[in-house]
Amino acid sequence: MLWSPDHDNSFSKAVSEASQHEVDSWGVIVNSFMEIEGPHVPTFESFFVNGAKSWCVGPLMLCDPPAEPIQPENTMCTKWLAEQAMQESVIYVAFGTQADLSDAQLDEVAFGLEMSGLSVARVGPEGIVGREAISEGVRELMRGEEGKNARERVKELSRVARKSVQEGGSSYENLSRLLDQLELQGSSLTSGSVLH
Questions:
Q1: What is the largest CA-CA distance in the chain?
Q2: This model's pTM is above 0.70
Q3: Which residue of 23, 27, 82, 124 has the fewest C-beta atoms within 10 A of its own C-beta?
Q4: Whole-angstrom Cα distance, residue 134 to residue 140?
Q5: Is residue 53 part of a domain?
Q6: Higher pLDDT, 123 or 69
């Protein structure tokens, strides 16, 4: 079902106006990098009416890392993690803040994770399948060949993400182009042109 704004409701009206301004804008900043988003950028840009550009300038959290490494707090959770026998032997399950699971669904997740025989750091809600499928999927992810390949891909994407925000990287270059464009737009505004 498509969302239809209720123009008598101020929140609904604000969301509708913000959405329209986004569609009419000349660009949107994306907290990701071209090496992962590149194939999808043209499709994303096709939603805009003014030939707007997607400026992939992230991951922003990597742009200015702290001078000193952040040390984890000495909590019960970090102690438990340190005590685990094997490196990369703990799975973290998170479902975000928007998930709404029934007790039966949570039970299926909990039982499936328990059946896997692996350590579990946290469980919280999302689209759920049966406990056997969860157990099998967790075992494959943590101990199987597909899981090993997935971890290798994550390591490679992490390396590429870090490179993208360094001088000469795709995000670094996109941010430079964005700043140049903003400077041009600022000059246009002072000479009487209109920016959407």
A1: 68
A2: no
A3: 82
A4: 10
A5: yes
A6: 69
Do 80 and 57 belong to one domain? no
Distance of alpha carbon 104 from alpha carbon 60, whole angstroms: 38
Instruction: In whole angstroms, give the CA distance from residue 166 to residue 5.
Output: 42
| H or E element that contains 90 | strand 90-91
Alpha-carbon distance values, 27 to 3, 21, 51, 97, 110 (Å) = 24, 11, 8, 28, 43
Cβ–Cβ contacts within 10 Å for residue 168, how many?
8
Question: Which of the 8 DSSP states describes residue 26?
Answer: S
Q: Which range has the top average pLDDT, 44-48, 159-163, 191-195?
A: 159-163
Q: Which structural domain, as residue segments, surrounds residue 48?
A: 10-61
Domain count, the chain: 2
pLDDT above 60 (res 106): yes
Cβ within 8 Å of residue 47, ≥6 positions away: 23
